[in-house]
Each structure stands twice: as C-alpha cells, then as structure tokens.
Amino acid sequence: MNALLPDPRPIDTLVVPPELDGRRGTNRARNGIAQIAATNDLDAIRAWLARFVDTKTTFDSYRKEAERLLLWSVLRLGKPLSSLTHEDLLLYQHFLVDPQPAAQWTASGGRKHPRSDPRWRPFYGPLSPGSQRQAMVILNVMFAWLVQAGYLAGNPLSLSRQRAHRTKPRITRYLSPELWLEVKTFIQAMPTGTEREREHHARVRWLFTLLYLGGLRITEVGENTMGRFFCRCDANGQDRWWLEVFGKGGKERLLPATAEMMTELAVYRRERGLPALPSQAEDTPLVLPIGQSLKPLTRAALHRIVKEVFSGAANALRARGETHTARADQLEQASAHWLRHSAGSHMADRQVDLRLVRDNLGHASLTTTSQYLHVDDDRRHRETDEKHRIDW
C-alpha cells in the first residue's frame, strides 16, 4: 500500500503523487497529436467521464469503475493507470472477486456512505460474477476511448494498437450454403443396406443436425445428454422444446430445440429403439456408439465421424471434374467447428437478430437456469425456428 495515499478517496478530490500521476506512463502515446488536453491519468479519466454528465446513471456507473481501477493501480500496485499491462488487468479481475484488505476497500457493513464522508470506500463488498464482467466491459470502453483520443498507445484489455488499420473481420472457416448443400447431399446418399449402415447413417444425420441447428461445440455434443431436453409453454400456451447445454468453462445456456430438431431427434431415437421423446433427466448421450453401448462417444470419435463425412463429400466433388477441385479442397479442411461458424453465418444471412445468434451460440452464457421462459426467450425460439433450418 502506498504510504502517500493510505486510504482510497473519491476522484473528485483525489490528488495523485507526481510519480504516479501518469505523465510518464509506459503506455502513453508518444507519437501523433493528442485529441484531449489531459497530461495525467486523472485528467484523462475526467475527460472521458465528461461525455456522460447528462446521463446520471451512466456517469455514476462509469465513474465508479474508473475510480476503482485508478485507486487500485496507485494504491496496490504503485503504478500509474497509464502503465498498466494486460497482466495487471488480470490481477485486477481477481481483486474484484474479494477486495482486500476489506477495511481499506469496503464500506463497513456494506453501507453506501456519501462521497464526502471519511468512511466512504469504493466497494461495498465482493463483486458478483455479473458485476465483475460489467466492470471489465466499462473499463474496456474507457481504455479504447483513451487510445482513440491519443492519450494511450494501446488498450491493455484488448491489446489493440493505436490507429491500427482495422480490416473488416471475416470468418473464413465456414461452409457457404452451396458447400453445405453438398455435405447434406452426401449424407443423404450414404449407404443404408445393412443394419450397421442404417444406424451409422442415422447417427451422422443426427450429429450434423446438432452441430448445425444447435451450433454446438463438439465437446458439448459429447458431454451433454438427451435428458437435458425439456418442454415449456410460452406466453401463448404453445409448447416449445429447449436443450439446456453445459458448455465451455462449465457455463450453461438454453438452446432453442426447434420443431425440425425435435423431429430429427425422434427419428434417431426410434432408429435406436428408444421412445420418440426423452424423459426428464434421461442419461442417454446425445450421440451413441454403433451397437448396444450407451457410453458417450469421445471428442476424438466425434471428430473422426465429422472428418470422414467432409472427406467423403470432398471426394464426391472431385469425381465431378477439375472445376470442383478448389471447393473439394476447402471441404477437406473443414472440421466440426466449421459447422458452428456456418450456423452463425447462415442465421445472420437470414436476418436472425444478432443478439439471438449470440445467445444461441453461447457467446453470452446463462449464469443460472430460469424456472420459466421469458418473452425474450420465446422470441429467440420463434425466430430460430422460423429462420434457421437444416432442410434435409
């Protein structure tokens, strides 16, 4: 703890020692023309906050997060805010989980004292996961603006550089609708002469349905069960099926199980001698091995199935002549994750709201499972059902 500033103070009256005020911060922009007059970190933060004075709620929220970081940087690290690195910000995220020592950082009893009160502290207790994420989002906005204003050389949260030429992001690892049709056509033509071939054909069709309609990661296919499908009535009394997915990092999300997906699930289950619809908490894996085993397939086994299909579709393309070689080579490179990218791209192409695409793919994950479906969830289900189809 820096001796010159033994206790955190509001930035309204804060005076930062010259050696920590950021005039010589290691992340200060050295070239180009600054767009703000600030020469130290505190004035730069105030310039950023001045943009929000007309919206009290936003101003208070943004000031709170900027204030906390500045105080932490100066008091805990003994560094100017304009010298913070990406690694420092990772430490700060851990600090937000439980600011210590509590007597210096947390208001006694979690009470909110006036900013002029000596008992004022920047925290009222540990931050929830949602509050931690919100804090970092706001700080990212601040850092990005300070870079744009010519005050900082780079954003330690995003690692982007000042005035770098930004090309429009392009997702290249996905299947165009035309290539996706080639894959579906190949799957439909797979042999079904023997019992094993029929079972394999049904499994492949169901696996590709999950990866495309659900946008699932390959690990999510292997780690979730059919018992995670459930049905609820929406606000209009219509039954809607959902798939609750444990995803990356152990996070949860609700995935719309469209009418098409549920039809394919019923077909696959009947092929395996199971009832058309799963029961609650049923532990049957989403995709099963050939034969009587009910053990989940490994990630490697699922990848192998997908790669074999892409390879077979590529060979079928090459057999049609040299004009198809480039497209066949692209298919040869495809993996299960390409189907996830394809799902997102095709949903966007069909004007599914990008916020709904984000939620479907789990880019914004659920922290708790709702006991009922909200109107927004109903809309997400309806739009996904109407606009995102596999059309076997």
UniProtKB/TrEMBL annotation:
InterPro entries: CB, DNA_brk_join_enz, Integrase-like_cat_sf, Integrase_catalytic, Tyrosine_recombinase_XerCD. It comes from the Bacteria. Keywords: Cell cycle, Cell division, Chromosome partition, Cytoplasm, DNA integration, DNA recombination, DNA-binding. Residues 39-147 form the Core-binding (CB) domain. It is found in: Cytoplasm. Residues 170-385 form the Tyr recombinase domain. This is Tyrosine-type recombinase/integrase.
